[in-house]
């Protein structure tokens, strides 16, 4: 959010267009989550599904879940996120 607001101020100073602060704030306010820690599913939940020793894989799965929640492709509900994580894990096994 802060980066977008700063970019908006720079655009105003450079006279590159109209003020988009309200638009940026509205987008931010309507995000399903604002921080990764707000996900109702985490790395420990992944380990309950499957034992994975590679922390990078766990991080990538969480990143994919976060991306899909923020883009409203999946709701931030534990069971839905668990099912999505299972699908991602199945792809790793292929």
Structural class: mainly alpha
Q: In what range is the share of β-strand residues?
A: under 5%
* Structural shape: elongated
Distance between the termini: 38 Å
Largest sheet: none
* Number of extended strands: 0
Instruction: Report the radius of gyration as a whole number of Å.
Output: 18 Å
Q: Give, in order, the helices and strands.
A: HHHHH
Q: How confident overall, as mean pLDDT?
A: 89
Low-confidence stretches: none
Helix content: 55-70%
Question: DSSP helix count?
Answer: 5
Keywords, separated by commas or semicolons:
94 residues, mainly alpha, 5 helices, 64% helix, 0% strand
Structural features, described:
- The relative contact order is 0.13.
- The longest helix has 16 residues.
- It is elongated, with a radius of gyration of 18 Å.
- The protein has 94 residues and is mainly alpha-helical.
Please outline what is shown here.
By secondary structure, the protein is mainly alpha-helical. Helix content is 64%, strand content 0%. It has helices spanning 2-13, 21-29, 43-49, 55-70, 78-93.
Secondary-structure blueprint:
Blueprint: H1 2-13, H2 21-29, H3 43-49, H4 55-70, H5 78-93
């Amino acid at each position: 959010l802060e980066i977008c607001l700063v970019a908006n101020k720079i655009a105003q100073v450079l006279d590159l267009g109209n003020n988009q602060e309200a638009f940026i704030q509205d987008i931010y306010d309507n995000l399903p989550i604002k921080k990764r820690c707000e996900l109702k599913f985490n790395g420990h939940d992944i380990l309950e599904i499957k034992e994975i020793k590679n922390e990078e894989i766990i991080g990538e799965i969480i990143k994919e879940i976060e991306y899909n929640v923020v883009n409203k492709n999946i709701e931030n509900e534990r069971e839905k996120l668990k099912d999505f994580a299972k699908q991602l894990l199945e792809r790793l096994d292929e």
